[in-house]
Hints:
The chain is an alpha+beta fold and about 425 residues long. The protein is built from 11 helices and 13 strands.
Amino acid sequence: xxxxxxxxxxxxxxxxxxxxxxxxxxxxxxxxxxxxxxxxxxxxxxxxxxxxxxxxxxxxxxxxxxxxxxxxxxxxxxxxxxxxxxxxxxxxxxxxxxxxxxxxxxxxxxxxxxxxxxxxxxxxxxxxxxxxxxxxxxxxxxxxxxxxxxxxxxxxxxxxxxxxxxxxxxxxxxxxxxxxxxxxxxxxxxxxxxxxxxxxxxxxxxxxxxxxxxxxxxxxxxxxxxxxxxxxxxxxxxxxxxxxxxxxxxxxxxxxxxxxxxxxxxxxxxxxxxxxxxxxxxxxxxxxxxxxxxxxxxxxxxxxxxxxxxxxxxxxxxxxxxxxxxxxxxxxxxxxxxxxxxxxxxxxxxxxxxxxxxxxxxxxxxxxxxxxxxxxxxxxxxxxxxxxxxxxxxxxxxxxxxxxxxxxxxxxxxxxxxxxxxxxxxxxxxx
Length: 431
């Protein structure tokens, strides 16, 4: 098991009966979270949960939860519609449902479904490989394997391998045919690409299609060709074209991505849309579906149905307003992840309230800091929070609260209201 890089542990007590606990790494309380670095300069964190033994803890009652949460759920910051599911993370028992079975737009909490589906069909130690193979005379083919976080250093390693082998090229062929179909998701806003939220989905990308490290910089319209041109500069080639690698072509060089488990952690901690779309296509391929948005939807639904959970996604990132998932489905997936070690990266990838990822600036005071671990979700009119929280008595709960009637300009207020719900769960015994 890979050791976590962060030093201090948060213990989330799972115990019923024997009292198993999950220990999850986080920074110590006196450390101010650093800004998220640019992808090309970022070491991939590994925060794999460790199993240990903890005391048994009482399970909250429905009446206790309803009474404790009543005021928080009436917060007008949540808008006109709010759905809530609270589940015991050890047994999977649903403890409180407030329209929790209603299919809602999940926004980025949909990434939880993508993560569980991926780890149900692929091993967390698997990698994505970018290859260079021989083409026609004077030609090399750069073949994308779906690693959308390929870095300039990776391209430099590929070029170095070619030089070491004495291979020269005057022409680079870009093969990004592993992914097919539309490169923008159903009902995605054009501004997503213009504002740097996501790049058009290709099997070959350099730094997720970023044109610069500036926050919010537009993404490239054709990230695969951009990567090809950067590689051509490194190998001294003058021509870059799109094409397909010859069948059975000899491999000249390759680089591997970090393990899929690490990519899942990164995707959840940072809410990385590009990684989500790449990993969703790995689900589609494993489910014998085409690596398209439709294939992702079909593959994810089929994989999760085998786990007993129903979802209706149109993409893997949650950017599509046409995605539909119920809060009860997401809490069921979280409870599955708690019990099955295959899904450890789902737990360790959840942002820690007040410390990192998309929760670095939330839960900075009060009982939720360091105790709430949750995936955020934000779209026009939608604010959501789904994850795990330890109660005052030490019981681990899975929760999802989604407000899908948030007024324009009220996102910050909605987030504060969501945080209040999670804080109540952290501070009460609810019995």
